[in-house]
Specification:
alpha/beta
Length: about 180
Amino acid sequence: MRILGIDPGLQCTGFGVVDAEGAALHYVASGTIQTSPKDGALLPERLKILFDGIGEVVQRYQPGVAACEIVFVNVNPQATLLLGQARGCCLTALVANGLPVAEYTALQLKKAVVGYGRADKAQMQEMVKRLLQLPGLPGKDAADALGLCITHAQVARSVAAINKVAPTRARTHAAYKGGRNY
C-alpha cells in the first residue's frame, strides 16, 4: 500500500510518501509545497498553488490512499480560518484525484509515532528518521506528513486484523473520537 501523508498549512504544506508492506515501511519521497503572500499572491492564488502541488505529487507517486491531519482552533481566529481554507483545499485536491482520505489529529499522530501525545517537533523528526531509516532528519512539515503515513499504516493493519474477525463499515457521518475515515 502506498500512502500519501499531508500536513496542511497555508505557507508550508508538508507531504510524505511511504510504501507499507505488512509491518515494513519504506520511504519513497517527502517535501513541502510553499506559498507566500510576499510573492504578491493573493489567497485564491495561494490555494491554487496548494491544489496543483498536491495534484502533481499524486500524479508523480501514484498513492493508493491519503492521510491528512485534522487541525484545531488556535488563539488567532484569522490564522485558524486561513489554515482551515488551506486544509479544505488539500482535502479537495486529494478527493479530486480519486484518493480515499483518512484523517488523524496531532495527538493521534504523535502517540502513534513517538508514543507520547505531547511530543515536540524535534522528537517527531527523530522518530520518523529512525522508523523510516532515513540518513538525516526530514524537515518539520515533511516529518509530520511522513508521520501521518506511519500512523495510517499502523491503523490500516489493525483495521484489517479486526475485519478478519468481524467486518466493519467505514463511518460516513461527522467526526468521532477516534478520528475520521471516509
